[in-house]
Amino acid sequence: MGSSVNLEDVPTVDLMTETLRRLKCSTKPDKRLILVGPPGSGKGTQSPLIKDEYCLCHLATGDMLRAAVAAKTPLGIKAKEAMDKGALVSDELVVGIIDEALKKPSCQKGFILDGFPRTVAQAEKLDEMLEKRGVKVDKVLNFAIDDTILEERITGRWVHPASGRSYHTKFAPPKAPGVDDVTGEPLIQRKDDTAAVLKSRLDAFHRQTEPVIDYYNKKNVVANLHAEKPPDAVSAEVHKVLS
User: Fold this and answer.
1) Fewer CB atoms inside 10 A, N or C side of the chain?
2) How far apart are CA 29 and CA 130, in angstroms?
3) Which residues have a catalytic role annotated?
4) What's residue 40's pLDDT?
5) CB neighbours of 191 closer than 8 A, spacing ≥ 6?
6) Are 227 and 234 contacting, i.e. CB atoms less than 8 angstroms apart?
7) Which candidate, 126, 148, 121, places its Cα nearest to that of 138?
């Protein structure tokens, strides 16, 4: 908690809830997890559940970079310089920002990393940094799913832009094809959800990430999940792997 929050001003209920949460968390084993999977494989559904169950902090490197830039931290200033030049933020910088985040109380029990490392070089840098802290990655959860299933999942998504209501042509169709149930307005397909965009995202994912999975496979920390199953079945698999 930064100096901006005065504990005296925090409602008792919130304080007690947080205290109880920390007590419950103190008995949980530490875990450092990496979630790997293509867009639409269900990582976003599972990570909040894992985070709560094991009292981990969720590190989304994109958000962390933006936050560091906004907060003008020393690393954030460096990152902004790179971005302003149109350059990629270096792996060292991203790992540095993860390293900073790990000092927070919420990360005491470990973390979930999502969207990083994307390359073997990043995985090596991450391992070096963790080694200095005397810890290592415990498990890499690989949300393995067939591209054709993903294509059906993603290209079937249609949204009503004004309300954010989403539909799926196969799994949750609107009452009348192509229009919102409530307003009758036309539904749209997000740019990212079209077959062409998905194909290029999947190609990039396989190209970049397969080597990362191989890298962690050699360390015997990869658990392959059947990500095509329904969310509660995937949750059950995650639970088994992590217990």
Assistant:
1) C
2) 17
3) 43, 118, 157, 190, 201
4) 85
5) 197
6) yes
7) 126
Q: Is the pLDDT of residue 191 over 90?
A: no
User: Is pLDDT of 47 > 80?
Assistant: yes
**Which residues neighbour 33 within 8 Å (Cβ) at sequence distance 6 or greater?**
50, 56, 110, 111, 112, 113, 137, 138, 139, 140, 141, 242
- Pinpoint the alpha helices (H) of the chain: 12-26, 43-54, 61-71, 74-84, 91-101, 120-132, 147-155, 195-217, 231-242
Tens of pLDDT, residue by residue over 99-137, are 999 999 999 999 999 889 989 999 999 999 999 999 999
Tokens of 231: 């969310």
**Is 80 exceeded by the pLDDT of residue 52?**
yes
Per-residue pLDDT at 1:
46
CA distance 196 to 106: 39
Rounded to the nearest 10 degrees, the angle between the axes of helix 147-155 and helix 195-217 is 140
